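Notebook, student rotation project (T.W.).
Task set for the rotation: take a protein with a known small-molecule partner, predict the structure of the complex, and write up what can be learned from the model alone. Partner molecule chosen: magnesium ion. Sequence and SMILES entered below by T.W., checked by me.
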Amino acid sequence: MPKIVLTDVTKRWGNFYGVDHLDLVIDDCSFVTLLGPSGCGKTTTLRMIAGLETPTSGRIEIGDQVVFDSEKGINVPANKRHVGFLFQNYALWPNMTVYQNIAFGLKNLKKYNKQEIDEIVKRVARVVKIEPFMDRYPAELSGGQQQRVAIARTLAPEPQVIFMDEPLSNLDAKLRLEMRAELQRLHLTTGRTFVYVTHDQMEAMTLASKICLIENGVLQQYDPPLTVYGRPNNLFVADFVGSPSINFIEAAGAQNAESGDMLLTVFDGKPASFRFTKAVSMGAWREEEKRAADAVAQAKAERAKDKKNVEKGNVDKVFDYQIMRVEDDGSVKREPTENDYVIGVRPEMIEIAEEGGLEAEVYSAMPTGMETTVRVRVGNFLLTGVVFGGVTYEIGSKVHVKFKKEGIMLFSRISGKLIGTGGLDV
Ligand SMILES: Nc1ncnc2c1ncn2[C@@H]1O[C@H](COP(=O)(O)OP(=O)(O)OP(=O)(O)O)[C@@H](O)[C@H]1O
Ligand SMILES: [Mg+2]
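Predicted structure of the complex:
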């Protein structure tokens, strides 16, 4: 079974970089989701690995075979890469039965005899639980059943790697949930490597052993789902995963040399302190950040020397986080200094208390039964919290807000990068 290695893979059209110098290792038997906003380069990445799109430069290996290398002029055609591809718009053959649909690709391979084909078709049909419908035509199946036939058809030739590009996006919410569970099981029972494209962060979170989050063709983070959620590399990642969205709070201040705590001002002048769970020295962090920025600049300068180099037209920007306010106070974000920070607070890290902490007012409360999403107002600012259970809050009532002692994130405002996690006292 293969591992997939992408080294410095770029795909550009003119000066538009669809995929920008991507390095990625997809481990054998893993379930990797490619996640990111529309147009970030997910499908392009998948198509390059599958051999349906030719990279501008770079190298791709599947197992011990180099399937693409721009320098050596290697480009193995798609049908020799042993990958299965399931597109968003899986078209089943309408004039063929379920059985014939699944068998079709196998017959074309000319590798199996009739009896072998029959065995394979029955086996994959069992895996996706479609055996009772073998003689039906696609029009006689529900959407979810059709989807399963499409999956069976992809599995039948036993591809080493299975690529899926938003395969569930046509299904209703309930069926999606069911199919997600099926896919997870399928991954276990087939023992194949799954690479799965989605722009649905929930889907990516629940299915993946690792999430590859891309923005503007650039890899933002490649980690297990809970790491992406709990220790996002930057503001973009923090904002992209999690529902309801993370709260951002602007802060300014400096580190106390003795305690190592960050002494900050938040919400237009309220004093606060942030204690790192794992000690961070801001001096050392800034040096490291500068080193990283210099390395990027140097790599760029190196590339610029190459005559064939093309400047990226779709320029990368630091993520423009949003601060939730009750009323737009017309304030514009000023140029950040090194003493400016952004604090990230996941909704479940806000506690609604009887006393202590910050004075706040309930702005809205939405109980769903299992949990309640509460929005509170602190001055002109809004914070979203999630409380477990069907708690009712009266709109306009006075409450107190506290923050958890760990898991709160501190980001640099200049680079948008995560500095560390810890607890926030206001
Ligand atoms: N043939 C092409 N010529 C020029 N630009 C292209 C071409 N194909 C794709 N692109 C651009 O490359 C970028 C990445 O496209 P891609 O299809 O990989 O996005 P995606 O992440 O799959 O988005 P979605 O979630 O909308 O499917 C897009 O901005 C797209 O407009
Ligand atoms: Mg796509």
